[in-house]
Amino acid sequence: MAPAAGTMTLVIGFGALRRLADPAAAVADAENWSAALGVTAEDGTELRTFLDRNGVDPGFVAGGERLVNALVTVRQRVTTDRHVFVGATPEERSIAENVGWEYLPVEDAAERAGWAITDGGDGTGDGADADINVDGDSEG
User: Fold this and answer.
1) Going by C-beta distance under 8 Å and a sequence separation of 6 or more, which residues neighbour residue 38?
2) Cβ(3)–Cβ(36) under 8 Å?
3) pTM metric for this prediction
4) In degrees rounded to 5, what are phi and psi of residue 114?
5) For the chain, which terminus, N or C, has the lower number of CB atoms within 10 Å?
6) Which domains are seen in the chain, by residue range?
7) Tens place of pLDDT for every residue, the chain, 140 residues?
């Protein structure tokens, strides 16, 4: 990965990605305001299957390694003013912050960006679950 122009590298964790009602649209949207955008998961095969099934096309995939290693590697390879990790658990927050990343819970990222999130349901991200819009209205 070459140095990226712009100010922010954004990486979305697999758990957070699965919470998004339309992960493909969210990733496409985030690419408009991120210098570099990627996704990460320890299980690279499961992540790639999810990406293919949901039509998600991130700038890069950091799959198949522990989160701490993925974030350290991305930070070394992509030079931007900010590195932001969107995650779904307190453990992810701890890891991200310990390696110098800003952490943003998926609920906060969705609210700021105007993305709908799922109720957690089966975690497919395919929109099969009821959507919870950031304004609090439910759709089914």
Assistant:
1) 9, 10, 11, 12, 58, 59, 60, 61, 62, 74
2) no
3) 0.82
4) 80, 25
5) C
6) 8-139 (3.40.50)
7) 444 446 899 999 999 999 999 999 999 999 999 999 999 999 999 999 999 999 999 999 998 899 999 999 999 999 999 999 999 999 999 999 999 999 999 999 999 999 999 976 444 444 333 332 333 333 43
